[in-house]
Amino acid sequence: xxxxxxxxxxxxxxxxxxxxxxxxxxxxxxxxxxxxxxxxxxxxxxxxxxxxxxxxxxxxxxxxxxxxxxxxxxxxxxxxxxxxxxxxxxxxxxxxxxxxxxxxxxxxxxxxxxxxxxxxxxxxxxxxxxxxxxx
Length: 135
Fold this sequence. Notes:
The chain is mostly beta strands. It contains 1 helix and 8 strands. The strands form 2 sheets. It has a 5-stranded antiparallel β-sheet, with helices on one face. Strands 2-1-3 form a 3-stranded antiparallel β-sheet, covered by helices on one side.
């Protein structure tokens, strides 16, 4: 069985379209400038519904991580590492190591960058690797 696919809801389509082109897009509030992920119909800070999607580099810093040794969902290989990443100029998001780095030991404070991996037909997932120069 393959891993569960992420939601392809209408609101988040720009995120997934960007991923197909190896680009990371997040929402930005036009009223207060807050950048947010996951997508939402209104800004959590100012409650404005006026937002747009912006491309960001995806560079970030690991702020926390955990490694699962028990399978909670079919389709994930064990151990399964989940990273919490504070994006430069953006919000935090959860992510995983890119395939070649799946056994790597993460470290809080490690700089990471996105790579985009096919997980199904027409679905690419942003995953992360150590940023260049941070091996």
